[in-house]
Amino acid sequence: MMRITDTVKHLIIINVILWFATYVLGQRGIDIYTVTALHFPENPNFGIWQPITSMFMHSMASPTHLLFNMLGLWMFGSALEARWGKIKFLSFYMITGVGAGLVYTLVNYYDVHTAHNILLDSGFSVTQINELFQSSYEGFLAKLNSYANAGVLSEAQAVYDYGNSFYSNAVGASGALYGILVAFGMLYPNVELMLLFLPIPIKAKYFIPGLLLLDFIGGITGGMSLFGAGNIAHFAHLGGALFGFLLMLYFKKTQFNKNRWD
């Protein structure tokens, strides 16, 4: 069993402390979740610090979100830190986590832009569209329902499906974890991995691409993935994996491939 390395241990401690702090402070009426989660840049709740702070926050509604991320960080991150050293591993972790947030935000920009275009094609003015998205989430839903009931917006469901990205937020270490998974698969392709609910050994070079394929399907369809449905930021996962892959290519072509950063 892989010994937990120092940086991985500290990252796990930070994530667990913040999860409990979110709960304890929430019971006292102090909301740190909204301040730290990654919001759409034009949303009033957005802050420039959120691409980083969101990496260390997890959903209060699902303790398993924290549990599985921390297990994955321990199992795969410790192997990378032992090989790379503390600084190189932490740099990789932070870059892939921020990269995951960047890809997630770009996808949300596409969604919100699509919603705007649907409204423009339906005859709404730019002023009306801005007023719609300046509403609270509840106001957004109420106005869409009123437009649909009045017969002035036949594609209200499509506007909701795309426009919902304006109000969505993302938290979790999953993006960085997916970067770590990609790096692990590239360095140890023949190591056999198993799912908790499917105890069949699968080599990393097959397991990890299969996991990414499930997330891609989940992101396109909005449906089920390996870890659930609905509120999963699939494209954040894929963004972390993409940045992990690009960093591994960079390491391979430079001296960073051989050097440990302790």
UniProtKB/TrEMBL annotation:
GO terms for biological process: proteolysis. GO terms for molecular function: serine-type endopeptidase activity. One of its GO terms (cellular component) is membrane. Keywords: Hydrolase, Membrane, Protease, Transmembrane, Transmembrane helix. It is a multi-pass membrane protein. InterPro entries: Peptidase_S54_rhomboid_dom, Rhomboid-like_sf, Rhomboid_protease_S54. It is found in: Membrane. It comes from the Bacteria. Residues 48-110, 162-251 form the Peptidase S54 rhomboid domain. The chain crosses the membrane at residues 12-35, 55-77, 89-110, 176-199, 206-226, 232-251. Gene3D superfamilies: Rhomboid-like. The keyword Protease applies. Pfam families: Rhomboid (PF01694). Belongs to the peptidase S54 family. This is Membrane associated rhomboid family serine protease. It comes from Kordia periserrulae.
